[in-house]
Amino acid sequence: MSFQIGSTLLDACVLSVLAKGDTYGYVLTQTMKQAIDISESTLYPVLRRLQKEGHLRTYDEPFQGRNRRYYAITETGTAKYLEYKKEWTEYKNKLNSLLNGGEDSE
Amino acid sequence: MNRKEFLRKLQLELYKLPRHEIDDAIAYYNEYFEEAGPDQEQAVIKELGTPSKIATQIKADYAVRQLESMESNRGNRAGNNAGANAGGNYNTGGGYNPGNAGNGSGNEKAPGKLSAAWWVVIGIVGGIFAAPVAIPVAFALAAVLIGLFITIVALLLAGLVTAIVLIVLSIVAVIVGLTLLATSGPLAVLVIGMGLMGISLMALFTVGIVALSNLFFRFIARKHREGQVKRAQRKLEKLQQNAQGSQSAPASPAAPIAPETPTAQETPTAMESIEAPADTIVESEPKKGGDNDEQ
Known about the structure:
A: alpha+beta
């Protein structure tokens, strides 16, 4: 797949996964990999940044004697996610009409 | 390479970052290895690539975050990226580019950073029109500032030397006065008194000079650092675009020919300037609060 993904879209994807529920790094990465071709190392800076911007927060849960860091979306994060969803729909429709020459397949 | 080595190498490469950042990064990847399971260890290492590569990404991201919080702390909202980036956010040619992070999130804290494309335009157009005038002006400006700097330093030094000399003289006066005590009492007392007064006055004066010099040099250091940070920002973009092998159009943002700060003389390599600003940023702003993490 040759389309690379910009950082904004990455943010949107992370937020949309988290919007469905809290999760931890490994599961988050695997979920994202189902949709887009990213490397394991891509996600960490994204999560750091989203956390700094206040769109997500973290908490730790012990699991089998070690620590699992969970990521949870915040209110601002949810607002941002909805914003992204709207932008994406517009963008997607424009791209579709361009690529499909006017036929909207969705 | 096994997981322990990998994490150890990663930690080494991150040493310039604050403790908190290093720990979080290592914890994240350690947890990842744990979750993947021991049988996946080699597969994960292969996917992650080299510790250097990850370390670079983490440092770059940290530097960008520092830049953004520095610039937003200065209340810099000017020249927002809206125009250049509104369409560019879903840039499919750009790869994962942490350099665009601040702009992409539509954050009103986003720094007044023009995208690389705009810098190229400014550089070319500005350069064509301004070069005959701008370059000599830049040199003149640099010369004036350097002259000013030297003058101030000279004045401070002169003041300091004067103060020290006078202190010495005053001490001598006290000593002379003491020896005179035997012969002419009142005169001796006068001389001693003047000597003592001289010492205290000059001591005060010295303290004042030292404080002034301190302020002055700190001011200079700050300006220098800001210049470095700006240049690092541009080098960051260049480095990321190279690292991602991106085919997106704006290659290196052309440094504007218009005069910047006169301290912009050296041109470190891209890697060094990643190290340098992270270094400068870390060492000089350790409590900058760039880590407003909600833990």
